[in-house]
Amino acid sequence: KTQLEKGDNLTEGYVSELWDFTRISVTQNHFQELKEIWCQWDDEIKQLFYCHYGDLPYLLDIKVDEHLFRALAQFWNPAYSCFTFKKVDLVPTIEEYTALLRCPRIQTDKVYSRAPNVPTFLKKLMNITGMSKQWITARTKQNGGCRCISWRNLRDLILAHPDMKKRADVFALSIYDLVVFPKALGCVDEAVSDLSDRLDKRVTLVPAILAETFRSLNTCRRADEGRFIECTQLLIAWFHSHFWKVEKVSYRVFSEDYSSLKELVATSRRMIFQKKNR
Questions:
Q1: Residues contacting residue 35 through CB under 8 Å, at least 6 positions apart
Q2: pLDDT tens over the chain, length 278 residues
Q3: Which of 92, 71, 67, 94 minimizes the C-alpha distance to 82?
Q4: Which residues form the DUF7745 domain (predicted)?
Q5: Contact status, residue 218 vs residue 78, Cβ threshold 8 Å
Q6: How far apart are CA 236 and CA 64, in angstroms?
């Protein structure tokens, strides 16, 4: 009502309403190998990763409740690109997603945008992996309208690369493609390699993550079906940050070292443990 009174970008006479049930698939990549690699790493490389890429690894431990996600998606209002719970509108913001990912090296005022002169897919992978053109060429393939490289090749590289920083870089690339932007299952495509290649310039990818999240939700809702192809874990974490039941606010929330994703993972594990021991 307020939006109609103050004006918005919808056509006159349009009535904003939530449609009937939408069948949304949340088919995801398998993260077990990523989790195993992370568990095998020592504290030195883990701290290196946290320093450069923030709390991305915690996304691997967030279990997606498909029933909860499908129920949440029913409240997505494509007319206004927000969740509508009766008289309350709720939408993820750049500040909230930035706080969840908690990447210290990222400058929030430097937003990712596709450069006019984009390096080739081969050059971007060479920059990220530190491998030769011949090595990259032998392992890339055409998948639909873009080139990609299989996760299996990146997995082997993470396990065997002699450079610790490059192992962390390739691991981050894998998380961004398999978890954050999981458009193609089982491989890393050209679009995500461009995003990852720009991370060294300390740009934030949060606006791109949110834009793709809204686009995917809008597409699924308008078609009454579809596969959500954005970071389900991050959206679930954001949702829990608003509705998670807590008895009191911990002082750790106000600490610079506080991690919302880490707290969510720990809380979920405690709840599972308590249920098993009832």
A1: 60, 61
A2: 555 555 555 555 555 554 555 666 666 677 889 999 999 999 999 999 998 889 999 999 988 888 888 888 888 888 888 998 878 889 999 889 988 998 766 665 555 555 556 678 888 889 889 999 999 999 998 877 778 888 899 999 999 999 999 999 999 989 988 888 887 777 888 777 776 666 667 778 888 899 989 998 888 887 777 778 778 889 999 988 887 655 555 545 546 677 888 888 887 777 665 666 66
A3: 92
A4: 42-247
A5: yes
A6: 7
Total domains present in the chain: 1
pTM: 0.81
List C-alpha distances in Å: 191 to 102, 147, 181, 273.
23, 9, 9, 40
Give the C-alpha separation, 106 to 205, whole Å. 9
Contact present, 244 and 62 (Cβ < 8 Å): no
Cα(15)–Cα(17) distance, rounded to whole angstroms? Answer: 6
Q: Helix and strand tally (H, E) in the chain?
A: 13, 8
- Domain containing 231 equals 2-276
